[in-house]
Fold this protein.
Amino acid sequence: MYGTKSKIDLAFEYQSQVAVLRPSIHSRRANLTVKFQDLYGFTVEGNVDDVNVLNEVREKVRQQGRVWWALEASKGANWYLHTTIGQGSALTSSLKFSALTNAITLKKLIRKGIPPVLRPKIWFSLSGAAKKKSTVPDSYYDDLTKAVEGKVTPATRQIDHDLPRTFPGHPWLDTPEGHAALRRVLVAYSFRDSDVGYCQGLNYVAALLLLVMKTEEDAFWMLAVLLENVLVNDCYTNNLSGCHVEQRVFKDLLAKKCPRIASHLESLEFDVSLVTTEWFLCLFSKSLPSETTLRVWDVIFYEGAKVIFNVALAIFKMKEDELILTHHVGEVINVLQMTTHHLFDPDDLLTVAFDKIGSMTTNTISKQRKKQEPEVMKELDQRIRRLNSLKVDDK
């Protein structure tokens, strides 16, 4: 996609994609709720203030795009690939320093956002998807989709059930063509990894990947690297054991990072997993505006799954004062849903996620997971035994 276009061509293509949103004069005067399409074709509903925020965000994106183009011009089109600092003596100090400089620059840039037109190329390279794809024949995806065509499994039946419920009303996803493309990606992966097969939530993730990556094959490999390398194991298996572990880890982190909120929610007997399970399984794609979601994904594909915890904690932290004034579960859910729905400025969210929540290393998260795994597996085993005993009683 990018090999035949100059940087100038890409810049013009990028600029044309980012339109300024203009609500009608009647909407401005009355401050009514307005509807408009965002960059990825989703219908967004908000007030005029939300539109103004989005316009400001898009101007920031334009400015950020200029930084990326300048770096590509000075360092080369694939400068961000040269960020690995080797250990061998053959690597000179100057090369090590160059790689370190690139790595620091890249981390800051990605947290500020990857320009939409560069997202497919940068995600594919930095996530490890390109490397994963290179280990199999070029025809792998085509051969796989042809081999599984017409086969019926519990996974394919669930996929067919979920297709029309995946971002209904979207101008491309909610069409026969969009459904067919999404189905091929999901069915192909369900056969690639039978342990995962298909889990509800993956349809939203794969759909958004399709919109960003433009091609089914690239979306397939992004889904593969996400499930096999980026996220924790067993998040999407039949018993969702990995997801249960993540929820327990999150509850512990909430107690440490936001003790006032955790204490108040405990007094209301509110289980945060009622809300956060969907955040983790759908990677915020059902909760946050698409442009904010993709800014979060920019960082996830570079820094890993720990980012999900930072972002989830940030959503709670941003509404700490409101949450501790709630009196029942319904109010809590309403505050969180209203917050995520109107998070049109990704910088607001990511600033809290990384500056106010504080650093959390992958190693720290891994230790927390290992701590929680035995209890989760014990609970799941007890649940299975109860279900089996009920089946015996029914006979």
Notes: Strands lie at 34-37, 43-46. The two ends are 60 Å apart (CA to CA). The chain has three domains: 31-62, 115-230, 241-384. Residues 1-19, 24-30, 85-91 have pLDDT under 50 and may be disordered.
